[in-house]
Design goal:
- By secondary structure, the protein is α/β, with parallel strands linked by helices.
- The chain has 12 helices and 9 strands.
- 38% of the residues lie in helices and 14% in strands.
- The strands form 2 sheets. Strands 7-6-5-8-9 form a 5-stranded parallel sheet. The protein has a 4-stranded parallel sheet with strand order 2-1-3-4, sandwiched between helices.
- The two termini are 37 Å apart.
- Bound molecules: phosphoric acid mono(formamide)ester.
Length: 317
C-alpha cells in the first residue's frame, strides 16, 4: 500500500539523499500519471494555482520540455527563464536570480546548472522548492528515476538485474544518479568505459559495484545496458586517443548486442551521438527503450512535483 506521507522532502537534490522506500514511492506514484497519457485530456487539477520556474543554465531538450509538460499536466503555471536573454548576462548571481523568482512566488524552481551543487545552494537560500535538473558532474535525479522506472516497467523488478552503465562515467551526472538509485534497489551494477573515464574513488563510494574495462566482458549476460553520451562539451579530447578509437572499443553495435541477453534493454539518456557511442541499428532496435524513457520522464516528473508539493505550503498573500 502506497503511503505518500512517508515521502517528506521539500527539495529533490539527488537520489543519494532518498531512501529505497522513497524511491519506490516516486516510481509507484508515476504509474497512474502515466495512465493519463492515453486519455484525450491528459490533465489533472492537482497543482492548480502553483507555479514552476524552469531555470536552465545549460542546453536541454528532453528535461526542460518534460518538466514543462509535467507541470502543465498537473495544471501548474510554468515560466521559462532563458539564461541567454536574462539578467544573468548582466552579471546577476545565481542566488539573486533565484531570489527574484522567489519574490515572484515561484513555488518550484527547476534548475540545471554546470556547477555541481548549484541546486543545493538554492535550497539553502530561497524558500521555493528546488528540483535538480542536472548539476555539473553530480546528479540528474529525475533521469535516474525515469531510467529505473523504465527498467522496472519492462523487467518487473530491479533487484538482481545485471545493469551495465557504459561510457563516460567520470563526467556523467546520469551515471551517478543511476548508481545511487540502482544500488539502493539492489541491482548488480557494472561500470564499463575507458580507464581514464572511470573515477577511482567510485569503488570506495559504491563497494558492491563491479568495474570492467573490457566491453565484451562487461555486457556478457547483461539485462540492461545504459549507454552514456560522449560529452564533447566537457573537453574529453585528452582522455581518449580519438573518437574513432572510442567507438571501436566502447561503441555499442549489433554484433556486440548479441553478447548480452536476447531481451537486453538498451537505454540512452539522450541526446545520442549516433555512430559514436551507439549505432543507429542498436538505437532503433527492438531492444531499445530510448523513446519509452522520454515518455516515462514526464510521468516521473509529475510524480516528483506532486510528492514535493505535499511538503510545501503554497505561497500565500
Ligand atoms: N537526458 C537529458 O538530460 O537530456 P537533455 O539534455 O536534452 O535535457
Amino acid at each position: 500500500m502506497l503511503n505518500v506521507k512517508k515521502f517528506n522532502h521539500k527539495h529533490l537534490l539527488g537520489l543519494e539523499y532518498l531512501s529505497k522506500e522513497e524511491i519506490e514511492i516516486i516510481l509507484e506514484t508515476a504509474k497512474p500519471f502515466k495512465k493519463l497519457f492515453t486519455r484525450s485530456i491528459k490533465k489533472v487539477p492537482t497543482l492548480r494555482g502553483r507555479s514552476v520556474a524552469l531555470l536552465f543554465y545549460e542546453p536541454s531538450t528532453r528535461t526542460r520540455t518534460s518538466f514543462e509538460l509535467a507541470a502543465k499536466r498537473l495544471s501548474a503555471d510554468t515560466v521559462n527563464i532563458t539564461v541567454q536573454t536574462s539578467s544573468v548576462q548582466k552579471g546577476e548571481s545565481l542566488i539573486d536570480t533565484a531570489k527574484t523568482l522567489e519574490a515572484m512566488k515561484a513555488d518550484f524552481i527547476v534548475i540545471r546548472h554546470f556547477y555541481s551543487g548549484a541546486p543545493h545552494i538554492l535550497a539553502q537560500n530561497v524558500s521555493s522548492s528546488i528540483i535538480n535538473a542536472g548539476d555539473g558532474f553530480h546528479e540528474h535525479p529525475t533521469q535516474g528515476l525515469l531510467d529505473i522506472f523504465t527498467i522496472k516497467e519492462k523487467k518487473g523488478k530491479i533487484k538482481d538485474l545485471k545493469v551495465v552503465i557504459l561510457g563516460d562515467i567520470l563526467h556523467s551526472r546520469v551515471a551517478r544518479s543511476n548508481l545511487w538509485g540502482l544500488t539502493k534497489l539492489q541491482a548488480n551494477v557494472v561500470l564499463c568505459g575507458p580507464p581514464t573515464l572511470i573515477p577511482p574513488e567510485i569503488e570506495k563510494i559504491f563497494p558492491n559495484v563491479e568495474i570492467e574495462y573490457n566491453l565484451e566482458k562487461a555486457i556478457k549476460n547483461a539485462d540492461v545496458i545504459n549507454i552514456l553520451r560522449v560529452q564533447f562539451e566537457r573537453q574529453l579530447e585528452h582522455l581518449f586517443p580519438s573518437v574513432r578509437e572510442y567507438s571501436l572499443l566502447y561503441g555499442m553495435n549489433k554484433e556486440r548486442l548479441k553478447i548480452a541477453k536476447d531481451d537486453v534493454l538498451i537505454l540512452h539518456p539522450g541526446p545520442m551521438n549516433r555512430g559514436i557511442e551507439i549505432t543507429t541499428d542498436v538505437a532503433d532496435s527492438l531492444n531499445s527503450v530510448i523513446n519509452q524513457q522520454v515518455t516515462n520522464g514526464v510521468a516521473i516528473r509529475m510524480a516528483v512535483l506532486y510528492l514535493l508539493s505535499l511538503n510545501t505550503t503554497s505561497t500565500k498573500l
